[in-house]
Amino acid sequence: MSDKPSETTAGNPELSSMEKILELNPRFSRREMLGITGLAGIAALTGIGSAAFAQNETKRPRIACLVSYWGAPRSHADWIITKLLDGYWWNGAHTPSRVDVVAIYIHQLPESGLGQKIAKAKNIPIFKSVGEAVTLGGKELAVDGVVIVAEHGEYPTNLKGQWMLPRWWIYQQVIRVFEQSKRSVPVFNDKHLSYNWDEAKWMFDKSRELNFPLTGGSSIPVYYRTPEIELDNETPIRTSLLVGDTADEGALFHCVDLLQAIVERRKGGETGVKSIQCIRGAETWHWLERNTWAEKLLESVRKKFELKPGHFQEIESPNVCIIEYNDGTKAAVISGKGVSWTYAGEIKGHNDPTLISILGWPGPFAQYHASNAQPHWITEMMVTKKEPFHAERLLLSTGIVAYNMESNWENGHYSAVGRLINTPFMNMTYRTTRGAQFSKGQRPPNTPYIRGFDI
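Given the sequence above, the corresponding structure tokens read:
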């Protein structure tokens, strides 16, 4: 008998299974079998266990969510995990969830009343440790994916302004289970990998050593764009400026990650970062005057938004993060207000700068807020087991922010004109092949969550 499936059963798991049952149980006619609904009905009628057909059914990835804090409705855990539970708004419509959250770990559990209520309402166990969560209380890895959201909570900030969130601390415990189980699964890590470069590099290296997909980063690169454009691969970008909120380390990361999502599409692809420098205070504007390419790009943003001359110079605590890439491309992230997040790029052959803005950011208490696209790509990775973009970009964004915060400090002494830090270790190279990943279409209704309990 040929192993090739017939035209009537190929691509149809239930019919294919039915043919197997007919072969094993000739007392049933094909007509009788067609009258049975689904594999469960077939299994019940024949006495053959439904597990025999499990490989034919679509398996929803089982996810462990590991968070630092889940208290206020504006915490990242609430923004992201609720979408994995209840679905998200994507390309103009609500999309049901395609994963199952089966385990939760909360580092600051007593303060996370909202997380406790949601877990109870959804009948999801909260485990006492990271290891128990990813093993479901057993001895080996028992989930198909891991989501780490360690963005909020009561954690110290060091002298350099780096928020010492427990991203690496959680991640390394996941890695321990991967190594003990001799198996790994996709991992999402919200925002930057760590405030510390050495920890971040270790996290990235482990994903390559153990061969699992890794993603994370900011939600800004995948939010709605004005205009709705993505630069073509191999775009001859000469210089780039990202204008946005850079008040602290977390805000700066949003800007840097958006910048990286755009400049990685330049001609020749990503070549890695050669040096980083941070300048703060009034010296920011002196640097701008000396670098006419950046001054020209900032002026193009001001005119686009019809702002008065000197608008950006009114910022209370200005700063600029200066980036030089290994291929000679120059970029900067500069503090700005009134333009949300706006990219301005000088492209060879174009008379005017190319501008891309992220506008219309919703309030933090809206149900369908900015994190919708991010859970979509988290889900895509969990289902396909492929990174939605090169994890090298996440590592570069992390490193740029980390060394920007280092630049103004040396041996415990602060300088507004930070030292230029050469970064030969940030020599990641790749050529992106991804398409556009940002939200498009009708924006979601600005309605609050209906949870069934008070928050």
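The longest strand covers residues 237-244. Try to locate this feature in the token string yourself.
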